[in-house]
Write the structure tokens for this entry.
Amino acid sequence: MKRSSMESSKALNTVLTYVFLILGALIMIFPFVWMILTSSKTVPESMAVPPTFFPKQIMWDNFVEAIKSLPFLNLYVNTGLMILFRVICAVLFSSMAGYAFAKLEFRGKGLLFGIVLVQMSLPSQIFIIPQYQMVAKMGLANTIFALVFPGLVSAFGVFFLRQTYMGIPKEIGEAAYLDGCNQWQTFYKVMFPLTGTSVAALTIFTAVFAYSDLMWPLVVNSDLNMMTLSSGLATLRGQFTTNFPVLMAGSLLAMLPMVILYLIFQKQFIEGIASTGGK
Amino acid sequence: MKKNKLSPAARREQNWAYLMVAPTIIGLVVLNLWPFVQTIYTSFCEHLGFGHYKFVGLANYIEMFQNGEFWRATWNTILFCILTVPVGLFLSLLVAMLLNAKIKFKGGFRTIFFLPMVCAPAAVTMVWRWIFNGEYGILNQVLGAKIGWITDPNFVMVSCAIVAIWSNIGYDAVLLLAGLQNIPKTLYEANSIDGAGKVKQFFTITLPMVSPTLFVVMIMRLMASVKVYDLIYMMVEETNPAVTSVQSLMYLFYRESFVAGSRGMGSAIVIWTVLLIGLVTVIQFYGQKKWVNYDV
């Protein structure tokens, strides 16, 4: 008797777990579904009372309208290049510095690593005004360089990769050194290839962060053709205050590349972002 | 000083090290350390335009502390933390525990809950504006209400909090799930022989064991919430009359520095925010002794 009641309570638990999870998943997914559905509605359809759930047609016109109002091709290219350069800089410079801080002895190490920690603990907004003034003074506002600028070095990347290098046994480096490699060769031939998972995590983290960032691109590139997807959308918001189908189409266009990458590399995205532990 | 006499090998190692940290250190000094000093200095200056400044002492701070909008933004920031962090952590822990059960499609659920993380806030807030729309939004239609979710000063903060919680739940849940998975199964087995109920099990095993992870997630979430800007900026544009009821410190910073052009005032606001973050951190690290369990 007791056994069967325990089993039935276990079954009830499982059912409840699924009910809650499915309910939660529906809440999580609904805004995306609603975005897709609305992007295919006509304006009157979108405003109908009571609401119509499914559009009667697939309205490519909304997408055409969004592309007409925002130079999407430029936005994709700008965002892509910004991400590319930020990732290259973050991976290259942070790997070098992370390795040096973890494995090499040099005077002033503590002090220099202190600079890394200070940057990490301060909010990025504290640097924005002077950074903007530097870019403006160089006459480089409204360029790809301006978008990349604050991401030329990544204190977080240094911190993160230093952890990774500290986890690699030093015997591996010593063996390479005895084989006649100098410090640089030990680093890039032996040690760097061992950090693939962490480098992938840093790449994803840097890319998602750059892609989401709004304040910096908004401040530094005011020319519509030099904006990123995020700051471009902010502009679109002001242009169409009531035409939600076009706004949804635009948002969908802006989200699509990252979402597709995410769906292909789910595991790497989730574990990568989770292992970097912060956004 | 024997220290000066490095062996040739040690000297070579040191030179390589300097070479390898050089790009990072030069970058950090130019991009962060120097701007940090400049921002502190600028907070004592008045911006005359075109990058020219005049030293005005504490004038910006005095003006700031006498400004109602500033205090409102400070309160809004604190309120945003109060509304989002506890509820968000509770729901994330719940999701993490559900995902930790023996279920099918675990990966699928995880992917769905995590999805908002890879979407730019600028894009997802757009659909939330539409859902929350006072006249035609689906939420009011379903509720049969006419609530101005993003135009009514009484509701706008709650609406933004909902979007924030929705955005971060999956990410926090993934971190907490990792914490839960580190709890040895044997602890639960021993406990269930004692005949302890699920609720008791949660408070005697799960919560203490996951508390270090929970603490890290909470700190991270608090820091991010104090700095909140993009979500609120996208939800509530500057021309919206409800903006003062939801404007965070970083939103005010953006408007002061880059819309109004008063960079001295903007710098003072950002310094104030850093002090606030410092205060929160100190409180947390003292408070953690009461509930975070590092013994196991």
Notes: The CA atoms of residues 134 and 148 of chain B lie 5 Å apart. Strands of chain B lie at 45-49, 52-55. Chain B has a mean pLDDT of 90. Residues 69-291 of chain B form a domain with the MetI-like fold fold (CATH 1.10.3720.10).
